[in-house]
Amino acid sequence: MANTIVPIALLIVAIGVLLFIAKELDPPKKRKLSGIIFFLLCILFVISQISYLINPLERFRNLGGLFGFYSSAWTFWLVGFYFFIIPCILAYLGFVFFFKPEKRITTVLLYFVPIGVIVDAIFALFLKLSVNNIGAGGTFGSIVNTFLINYFGRLGTYLILGFGIIIVVFMIVKKSIFPKRKPKDEIVIKEKPKKAKKPKKETKEEDKPSTSTKITKPLPKIDFKTAFLNILEESPEDSELDKKALETEATVLVNRLAEFDVEGKVVNVESGPVISRFEFEPAPGVKVSRIANLGKDLALALKATRIRVVAPIPGKSAVGIEVPNRERSLVCLKKGILDHEFQDNPLALGIVLGEDITGQPVIDDLSSMPHMLIAGTTGSGKSVCINTIILSLLYHYTHKDIRFLMIDPKRLELPMYNPIPHLLRRVVTQPKHAVIQLEKLVKIME
């Protein structure tokens, strides 16, 4: 009894240690470890099944031990010689887990069920071999064969099995038995978008028009960047009313400060999309701290929710008084792209992020950022920021220069980029597939 319990206990401990180690491994290493285990099981089953066929009555002479003998005996009793499908399945799983981490195996494994029914029936019908008084098709094949012959006769059985083989073959090759002919008109429709996309690739030679279309003159070479800019909205120009409102607020600001014996003048006004900054130059002898302490009084005079006093503005002999705009201006990407700093600056991955408080475009180099975290409340502009970054890169680079891998499990923002040629693959929406794609990128970078 002890000779039996001790090996079983050691085996359970070994399996537990192996599972604990596998739990701590990275997903790629887990899959490779699973592939190795499947390969080892495949070898064990092949050895056990061959040994069983050679010595079907002597369990202690089986090279796979008692496990190999009983597993082979039970599977042969059930499906006959089709039991060799077990090491085939294990070999397939080992290959997929070790070499093909992306491949889905669920659908492929389902094919073995109808194949097993037909193969067992054929073995039971045509092969007159037996092992331990069990037919070549096993118990399952004998039952299927008996049922078909009793209800459909021998000729009907042949027809059913033959038709079943044809169905299984077409299931494996994934082709229709009666393929539909596609009308000729569909070919013309498919060629049109291909010809329309060629100008966007900035090819050196002018594309020739397709003979299947109705175009009678050569297609012009389209300037991709010009066409790209035509899609974007124009930035709204500052109206005279806005300028007069700023002048009025500047006058109110000076008068309010004068009431507190703070003399000076507004020398400049810089208006951004969200706030406007008044540069107030105090008269000689006026302390900057006095202006900083009047923040609430100035907010009351300007009817603002709050103001911010920058005392002083770095590099200037003036105090900045930042006041929220009564109406926020729309920030358009086109203005940032057309800015000379973005056009002329040789950045590796230049992107437009928006505008600063003075209304000047904010431009940065994505290659200088090891990571970027975009966070904010609902409706604060996270998606707009991501789209702005993507469009900035699309403007400067073709699909030959830059490629994207986009992941959007919520399927809200990024799937609209599926038609662009810059994608390595369609936008990933499944978390499992996202992990696999990111692991591939890590391997490329390493």
TrEMBL record:
One of its GO terms (cellular component) is plasma membrane. Residues 359-446 form the FtsK domain. Keywords: ATP-binding, Cell cycle, Cell division, Cell membrane, Chromosome partition, DNA-binding, Membrane, Nucleotide-binding, Transmembrane, Transmembrane helix. GO terms for biological process: cell division; chromosome segregation. Residues 192-201 have a biased composition (Basic residues). The keyword Transmembrane helix applies. It is a multi-pass membrane protein. One of its GO terms (molecular function) is DNA binding. Belongs to the FtsK/SpoIIIE/SftA family. This is FtsK domain-containing protein. It comes from marine sediment metagenome.
